[in-house]
Amino acid sequence: MPGLERRADYFVGHFEAMASNCEILIDTDDDHLAQEITHLAATEVCRIEQKYSRYQDSNILHRINRGEAVRVDEETARLLDYAQQLYQLSETRFDITSGVLRRAWHFDGSDNIPSATRIDALLPLVGWEKVHWHHPHIQLAQGMEIDFGGIGKEYAADRAALSIRTFVAGQSDTRARSTSVLVNLGGDLAVTGPRKNGNGWQVGVNSGTATLSSQAADFSLRQGGVATSGDANRYLEKDGVRYGHVLDPRTGWPVEGAPASVTVVAASCTDAGMLSTMALLHGPTAEDFLRKQDVPYWCQWHNGEIFERIPYS
Question: How many helices (H) and strands (E) does the chain have?
């Protein structure tokens, strides 16, 4: 059940979803409106989680991963088209079939590194080019899987923001129609528009993670999204070698020389998540990739160095 609390000049809705603490910041003093918006956001995020979580045994993802020939709905088709586009743009680095590698890799903080034989045995099950995808029909080879985990939370943030934007636009009260909302799904952010005073929501980047702040902040977010990708907390270490959880689907092994985390600001949370993940997949050339995208970013390396590009405040 979503909760609601009053802050100085806005409300904050709370709920749990996608293994994250979720917040909805609502620029209004109308508690009834804030409750409706929080409920709407929670419903949309939970809908997406139920539909695309790999932990569900009755959703469309489960049917696809069983190897059935499936005619998918339009929403799923758009996500699959997007995944195919990312696969091509990333030169096969971004691959939603790579989730099967978790059968070998368990990033539990131990030193249990899988054998090369174990990883090599899984590689035939990885590769979007092996997927039979002809919009709207998909079928996987036996043993293959797809996993929307790389884009799911960011997509949910954008969908929640869109639902809220549509809802407030239909309100009869003029002030209600201008309500700005920030969706925060565990640090992945989507904003519906500027606040009533014309400013954005104050956002800081702390240790590579976007955080909300009422104090001095790195930037003000009036529109768009923010997302962070990183392996600072999920890794294995053995004989002085660190193995981060960001895997190269072409080799089955962790990307070498990747940053600890990358935070990106973009036109949408989904775009921000895509760019931050792609940057990590570029390993030591992550910053070269980010500079070419012409977006604000924060890139933190494991030695503590932070490089950033913030063209506005």
Answer: 8, 17
For the four alpha carbons of 63, 66, 72 and 73, in that order, the dihedral sign comes to positive
Distance of CA 123 to the CA centre of its chain: 25
215 token code pair: 């104090």
Please state whether beta strands 261-266 and 297-300 pair in parallel, antiparallel, or not at all (unpaired).
antiparallel
Q: Report the distance separating Cα 226 and Cα 129, nearest Å.
A: 30
Burial class for 45, CB neighbours closer than 10 Å (0-12, 13-18, 19+): buried
Residues 6 or more apart in contact with residue 240 via CB below 8 angstroms: none
Per-residue model confidence as pLDDT tens for the chain (313 residues): 789 999 989 999 999 999 999 999 999 999 999 999 999 999 999 999 999 999 999 999 999 999 999 999 999 999 999 999 999 999 999 999 999 999 999 998 889 999 999 999 999 999 999 999 999 999 999 999 999 988 999 999 999 999 999 999 999 888 889 999 999 999 999 999 999 999 999 988 865 566 665 444 578 899 999 999 988 778 898 998 889 899 999 999 999 999 999 999 999 999 999 999 999 999 999 999 999 999 999 999 988 888 888 654 4
Alpha-carbon span 192 to 25, nearest angstrom: 11
For residue 42 the two structure tokens come to 């929670």
pTM of the model: 0.93
For the chain, what is the radius of gyration of the CA atoms? 20
Structure-token match 């977010």, residue found = 221
- Asked if residues 40 and 53 have their Cβ atoms less than 8 Å apart, the reply is no
Give whole-number Cα distances, 231 to 68, 100, 202, 219, 220, in Å. 34, 18, 25, 24, 26
DSSP 254: B
Determine what percent of the chain falls in helix, strand and coil, rounding each to the nearest 5: 35, 25, 40
Q: Which amino acid is at 25?
A: L
